[in-house]
Amino acid sequence: MSKVDVIDILKKSDALLEGHFLLSSGKHSNRYVQCAKVLRFPEYAEKVLRTVVEQIKDLNIDLVVGPAMGGVIVSYELGRQLGKETVFTERKDGEMQLRRGFEVKKGAKIIIAEDVVTTGKSTIETKKALEELGGEVIGVACIANRTNDDIGMPIYSAIKLEIQVHDANNCPLCKEGKIELVKPGSREFK
Ligand SMILES: [Zn+2]
């Protein structure tokens, strides 16, 4: 499946909106992404994540780990397609942890699963937690890669997504005045 098809599926499921958006930071953007929207449809999740599986299937992965919430469904679907064990980490007392009796075998090759990677902060934190348990994190698999900088591990994504973000007082979309500024559905706003 080509990149165009991935974009098409993200748009069809309203996971990717194009226009003029007011972000929670107060800045304005030309695109808004909410990957949970595409994961509503298992058939779409399967198709989009198959493009990621193609990139990671020969890496001899032992375990797929998705940080909650965003990574849980992505992790499950990747594990299903790879035929590998899949667990999740979750934040407790502000710290990313492996709970519920989930285990990491010493030297296990792990891929982290995320819906979207932006700054990579939570991914890096998850990597550290898993390495302290003896795992070997070989990268992160995600639907959308929004990074601008190296996050210290390979990123395998369905789509590299460019989103222009502007300060409210210096926004070309405001200056053009053609597209109304909207706040994406605030209940799922993140
Ligand atoms: Zn604007």
Description:
It is an enzyme of class 2 (transferase). Residues 52-147 form the Phosphoribosyltransferase domain. Its EC number is 2.4.2.10. With 190 residues, the chain is an alpha/beta fold. The chain has a single domain (3-176), classed as Rossmann fold, CATH 3.40.50. 29% of the residues lie in helices and 30% in strands. It has five helices and nine strands. The chain has helices at residues 3-12, 42-56, 70-82, 121-132, 172-176; strands at 16-22, 28-33, 63-67, 85-92, 95-98, 109-117, 136-145, 155-160, 165-166. A six-stranded mixed β-sheet has the order 5-4-3-6-7-8, with helices on both faces. Helix 3 (70-82) links the parallel strand 3 (63-67) and strand 4. Helix 2 packs across helix 3. The chain is globular and about 55 Å long. 35% of the residues are buried. Zinc ion (ZN) is lined by residues 20, 28, 171, 173-174, 181.
Can you tell me the overall shape? globular
What can be said about the biggest beta sheet? 6 strands, mixed
Radius of gyration: 17 Å
Broad CATH class: Alpha Beta
Task: Write a brief structural summary.
It catalyses: orotidine 5'-phosphate + diphosphate = orotate + 5-phospho-alpha-D-ribose 1-diphosphate. 5-phospho-alpha-D-ribose 1-diphosphate binds at residues 91-92, 114-122. With 190 residues, this protein is α/β, with parallel strands linked by helices.
